[in-house]
């Protein structure tokens, strides 16, 4: 194979020979043509010459160089044209084109010769560099020296532009280098071929599978080394690198074989493991042993790195292991199917379908499917299906076992409960036995229940044993029988317990009923009778558990009856004791320390009172009279208050008297009325003191009987104590009532003799009626009420006798309240003196004195009434004077300046009060005066606060305006406001309230002025911003506006006379223009003008409205096809007309308003501080 240098040398030789041949040929052809003179031959000669020159130029790479490329292409083109003309017998044309081709070819050849020579010089130098890099002197020193000398000659020739010589010497140098590097090149080629052979070996070792990285790396290195040997000719370096790569490749081949062997061994081991899982040790033990031995041999070769041997052995082992898997699958599947059938048959014998329905059929289907798969040689699927069947059978076995276990557990729990119930029954009746006959029957029932319970325990033991040997159906059935037996025993135990408990309750209830339980605890007795009936009904309905609970409740409720009887007895004992203590000591049980506050005699009678016939005893609390821990302290308050009759009407109380004397609740009312009435207690002490000792004796008797559990006797003795005292009190009240009636009649006679019938007829009639009523009540036996009515009769008679005296004293007291002691003291004193004198005269036993006393009393009434009128007038005038003084003080304090509305209202109210007043409506006018006083005090108090509030408000306003920048254009007004406020404060402190008020008013005006100026500036800024945005919209829509109405009319006109829609584009289209103007319009109409600028704001809105109307008409350019000619022209004219109006109005507003209000910057004012 020739190298590139050899090819270049051949090309140079051909070029030199062609030059000589072409010259010789040219001379011969010229000679021939000169003799023949044939034009066609001359053309042929020029064409051949051109062709040879083109060929020579091509050999010297003329098409490659930019200097000769165009000439070379022109030569080729001229040659083709000459050949076409020559073929068309156009000798002259062919000759002309041929000459042109010759000239272009010569030009191309001359241009390419220098460049080609330069390339050859570079190639020769590169060859010398290759020789030096690959130790050329060491290979052949003379040849290397010759090449070195030739290299110098080449440089000399090239410098003298002897290009053909240069090209020749370059070819010789390159040829010498080829000869010099032949041995190095051969060694490198040999190593490269070896490396390629190793690459084939690596590929055969399945490196693409097990060592793809090494294979890819080797491919890259082979390409690299091929390039280094063939193109770069780095033989020495490439040989060294390839030698190292050969060693690495051998290692890669070994590693690849190792990985291949490992993979084969893993596959074989996996197959063997699968075979073992398929129980090959049972069904194919010999083949399994053979595979295991072969595995050991293969591993030995593998560890000895005999990979070829190991791979061969591993491939055989893999095949044997796969056959072992197949064989074990067959036998394993066959065994699994047999086991499934066996277990299924066992469950069918156990009648599992009865306990776990529907599951055995699914197992049968799985076994049938497994057998079908086995028959079709699908052994693995058959095995898996059989395994599923076995798994389902295992789950069924577990479920069957769980059923038996649950049934046994259930029976165990029921049996344990039955035992517990049985034991509890024995405990209940062991401590509290019934009478002999009943106890004997109970013991017989108890023995029967125990025997049945032992039988249930034996059944439960048999069920447990059957489960242990997996006789699940027997275990379940025995467990159910044991559970049923135990439950029946438990139920019967409850029934026996409930029945005999009920007998005990009925016996205890009979004992209590003989002790008046029905009377003392009727609700509880009724309730326990219901419980007994309910318990018996539950027993009849076989609801024994509920019956036991009901019987237990009934037995515990017996104690409630006893407690209720004890409680009621204690209540009556406590009530009796409290009544006796009240009669003896006078203490009233109403929470008032020191006794009752019913009348003024309690303090005298509340201490120890010696009652004739009764020994003096210390007061004992009601709760301390009994040792019974269940006794309750009773408040002693009545539960039902006794009904009182209407005044002057006889109350028919004979039936009620009988009820009160026979019922406990009637006694309660009477006792409560007695112990809360000190007068009735005094009557008992005064008239029947021995009844108190009798009541104490009855109470002691009640306590003794209660301790002996004689509830009826204890209760009756406690009630008897109350009846004893009440009977005595009734007799005492009768005597007291008769005494009052005698006294009342005497007072009536004295009143009649004093002429009271004329002045107090109503009181006289009332006293007479009350006397009559009291007498009737005494006759009817209502002694207590008779005493009360008689007492009222005495009071009425006394009132009738002293009617004018009482009236004079009451009127004098009222006059004293209105200041009569200061306004009419002598007259008021005389009225009271006359009233006292009249009272004494009215008490006289002489009729003429009583008549004179009545006249004196009349005079006292007249004097007291006159004193009352004078007192009211004097009080009213004094209050009016004081109010006017206070109003003057408020006015002096500046109220008329800072609170004028309130002051005016108070003056008007004072005037109205003076006009409305007379002595008879003093109270109504007094209410108005109170309101005026309160309002006046509020005015005096709040006047300084009004000034302070105004100062604070104006200061806050000024500070806010300063923060907003008001000092830039209203500094003087701000300073003035500060001065006015400071002066206002100073004047107020100096009590110059008018000046203070005027200063504050001026300060407010200045603040208003600053605020208005600020609002105007803000408004002008907003309007300026709106106009700027409007101008910006005009500018951005200029491309449409500047077209003019005439041009737009021509655009929308069509040849048919109709109007066409147009769409104009630019910085802003008509839709965008309208949206912008519309947004400006919305902001403008929501802009609030300051005070006084409403007219200017209307002009601003009108300006924007013009622009908006114009924008709306420009927007209609999109729908011009919907208008006729006149309508379209009107739209365009309106758009421009409204636009011009907007611009004119905008300029006018800018000139007249905005520019005229230009800001004037001043020095900033100091910030106002709060006072």
Can you give a write-up of this model?
There is one protein chain. The radius of gyration is 71 Å and the shape is flat. Among the domains are: 4-180, no CATH class; 196-333, no CATH class; 825-948, no CATH class; 1014-1157, Four Helix Bundle (Hemerythrin (Met), subunit A) (Up-down Bundle), CATH 1.20.120. The protein is an all-alpha fold. The longest helix has 53 residues, at 379-431. The chain has 45 helices and no strands.
Strand content: under 5%
Structural class comes to: mainly alpha
Low-pLDDT parts are 1-6, 14-37, 588-661, 1159-1171
Question: What characterizes the major β-sheet?
Answer: none
Output the number of helix runs. Answer: 45
| CA-CA gap between termini | 115 Å
Number-wise, the strands total 0
The gyration radius over C-alpha positions equals 71 Å
> Helicity range of the residues?
over 70%
- Integer average pLDDT: 75
Gross geometry? flat
Question: Features of this protein?
Answer:
disordered C terminus; 1171 residues; 0% strand; mainly alpha
């Amino acid at each position: 194979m020739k190298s590139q240098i050899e090819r270049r040398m051949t090309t140079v030789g051909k070029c030199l020979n062609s030059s000589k041949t072409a010259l010789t040929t040219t001379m011969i052809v010229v000679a021939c043509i000169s003799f023949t003179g044939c034009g066609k031959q001359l053309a042929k000669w020029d064409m051949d010459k051109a062709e040879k020159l083109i060929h020579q130029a091509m050999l010297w790479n003329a098409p490659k160089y930019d200097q000769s490329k165009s000439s070379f292409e022109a030569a080729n083109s001229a040659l083709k044209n000459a050949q076409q003309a020559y073929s068309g017998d156009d000798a002259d044309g062919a000759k002309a084109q041929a000459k042109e081709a010759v000239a272009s070819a010569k030009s191309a050849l001359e241009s390419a010769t220098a460049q080609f020579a330069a390339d050859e010089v570079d190639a020769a130098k590169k060859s010398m560099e290759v020789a030096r890099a690959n130790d050329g002197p060491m290979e052949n020193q003379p040849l290397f020296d010759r090449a070195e000398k030739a290299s110098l000659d080449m440089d000399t020739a090239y410098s003298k532009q002897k290009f053909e010589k240069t090209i020749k010497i370059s070819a010789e140098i390159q040829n010498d280098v080829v000869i010099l590097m032949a041995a190095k090149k051969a060694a490198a080629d040999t190593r490269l071929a070896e490396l390629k052979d190793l690459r084939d070996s690596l590929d055969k070792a399945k490196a693409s599978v097990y060592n793809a990285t090494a294979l890819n790396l080797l491919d890259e290195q082979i390409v690299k080394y091929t390039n280094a040997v063939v193109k770069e000719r780095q033989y020495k370096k490439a040989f060294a690198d390839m030698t190292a790569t050969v060693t690495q490749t051998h290692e890669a081949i070994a590693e690849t074989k190792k990985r291949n062997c490992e993979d084969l061994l893993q596959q074989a081991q996996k197959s063997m493991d699968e075979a073992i899982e398929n129980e090959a040790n049972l069904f194919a033990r010999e083949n399994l042993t053979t595979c295991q031995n072969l595995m050991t041999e293969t591993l030995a070769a593998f560890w000895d790195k005999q990979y070829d041997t190991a791979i061969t052995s591993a491939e055989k082992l893999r095949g044997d292991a796969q056959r072992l898997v197949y064989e074990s699958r067959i036998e394993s599947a066959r065994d699994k199917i047999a086991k499934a059938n066996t277990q299924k048959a066992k469950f069918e014998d156990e009648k599992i379908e009865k306990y776990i329905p529907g599951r055995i059929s699914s197992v049968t289907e799985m076994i049938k499917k497994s057998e079908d798969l086995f028959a079709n040689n699908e052994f693995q699927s058959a095995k898996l299906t059989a395994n599923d069947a076995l798994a389902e059978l295992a789950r069924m076995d577990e479920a069957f076992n769980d059923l038996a276990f649950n049934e046994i557990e259930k029976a165990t729990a029921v049996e344990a409960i039955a035992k517990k119930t049985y034991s509890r029954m024995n405990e209940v009746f062991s401590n509290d036995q019934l009478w002999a006959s009943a106890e004997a029957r109970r013991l017989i029932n108890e023995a029967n229940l125990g025997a049945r319970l032992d039988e249930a325990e034996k059944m439960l033991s048999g069920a447990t044993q059957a489960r242990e040997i997996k006789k699940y159906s027997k275990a379940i059935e025995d467990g159910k029988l044991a559970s049923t037996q135990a439950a029946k025993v438990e139920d019967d135990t409850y029934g026996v317990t409930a029945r005999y408990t009920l007998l005990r309750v009925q016996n205890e209830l009979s004992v209590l009923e003989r002790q008046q339980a029905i009377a003392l605890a009727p609700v509880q007795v009724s309730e326990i009778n219901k419980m007994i009936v309910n318990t018996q009904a539950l027993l009849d309905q076989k609801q024994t558990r509920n019956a036991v609970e009901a019987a237990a409740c009934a037995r515990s409720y017996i104690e409630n009856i006893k407690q209720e009887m004890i409680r009621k007895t204690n209540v009556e004992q406590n009530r009796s004791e409290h009544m006796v203590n009240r009669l003896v000591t006078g203490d009233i049980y109403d929470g008032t320390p020191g006794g009752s506050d019913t009348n003024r005699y309690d303090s005298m009678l509340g201490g120890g009172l010696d009652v004739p016939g009764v020994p003096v005893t210390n007061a004992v609390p009601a709760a301390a009279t009994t040792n019974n821990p269940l006794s309750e302290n009773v408040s002693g308050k009545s539960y039902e208050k006794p009904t009182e009759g209407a005044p002057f009407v006889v109350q028919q109380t004979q039936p009620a008297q009988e009820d009160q004397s026979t019922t406990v609740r009637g006694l309660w009312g009477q006792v409560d009325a007695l112990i809360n009435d000190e007068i009735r207690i005094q009557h008992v002490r005064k008239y029947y003191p021995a009844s108190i000792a009798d009541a104490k004796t009855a109470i002691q008797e009640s306590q003794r009987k209660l301790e002996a559990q004689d509830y009826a006797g204890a209760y009756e003795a406690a009630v008897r104590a109350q009846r004893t005292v009440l009977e005595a009190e009734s007799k005492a009240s009768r005597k007291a009532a008769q005494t009052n009636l005698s006294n009342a009649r005497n007072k009536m006679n004295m009143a009649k003799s004093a002429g009271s019938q004329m002045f107090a007829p109503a009181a006289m009639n009332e006293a007479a009626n009350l006397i009559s009523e009291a007498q009737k009540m005494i006759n009817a036996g209502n002694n207590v009420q008779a005493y009360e009515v008689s007492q009222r009769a005495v009071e009425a008679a006394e009132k009738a006798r002293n009617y004018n005296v009482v009236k004079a004293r009451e009127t004098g007291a009222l006059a004293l309240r209105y200041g009569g002691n200061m306004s009419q003291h002598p007259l008021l004193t005389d009225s009271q003196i006359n009233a006292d004198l009249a009272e004494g005269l009215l008490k006289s036993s002489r009729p003429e004195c009583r008549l004179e006393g009545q006249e004196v009393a009349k005079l006292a009434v007249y004097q007291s009434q006159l004193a009352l009128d004078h007192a009211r007038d004097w009080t009213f005038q004094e209050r009016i004077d004081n109010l006017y003084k206070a109003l003057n003080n408020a006015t002096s304090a500046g109220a008329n300046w800072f609170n004028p509305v309130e002051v005016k209202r108070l003056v008007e109210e004072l005037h109205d009060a003076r006009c409305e007043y007379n002595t008879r409506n003093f109270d109504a006018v007094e209410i108005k005066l109170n309101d005026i006083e309160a309002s006046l005090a509020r005015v005096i108090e709040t006047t300084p606060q009004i000034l302070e509030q105004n100062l604070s408000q104006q200061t806050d306003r000024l500070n806010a305006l300063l923060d907003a920048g008001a000092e830039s254009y209203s500094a003087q007004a701000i300073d003035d406001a500060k001065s006015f406020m400071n002066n206002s404060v100073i004047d107020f402190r100096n009590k110059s309230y008018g000046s203070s008020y005027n200063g504050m008013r001026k300060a407010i005006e200045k603040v208003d002025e600053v605020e208005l100026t600020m609002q105007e500036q803000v408004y002008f800024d907003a309007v300026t911003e709106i106009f700027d945005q409007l101008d910006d919209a005009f500018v951005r829509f200029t491309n449409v506006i500047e077209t003019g109405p005439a041009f737009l009319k021509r655009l929308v006109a069509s040849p048919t006379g109709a109007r066409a829609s147009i769409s104009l584009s630019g910085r802003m289209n008509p839709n965008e223009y309208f949206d912008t103007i519309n947004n400006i319009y919305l902001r403008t109409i929501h802009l609030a003008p300051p005070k006084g600028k409403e007219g200017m704001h209307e002009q601003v809105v009108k300006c924007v409205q013009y622009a908006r109307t114009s924008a709306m008409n420009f927007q209609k350019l999109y729908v011009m096809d919907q208008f006729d000619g006149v309508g379209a022209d009107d739209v365009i004219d309106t758009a421009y007309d409204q636009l011009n109006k907007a611009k004119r109005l905008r300029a006018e507003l800018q000139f007249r308003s905005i520019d005229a209000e230009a800001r004037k910057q001043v020095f900033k004012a100091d910030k106002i501080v709060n006072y």
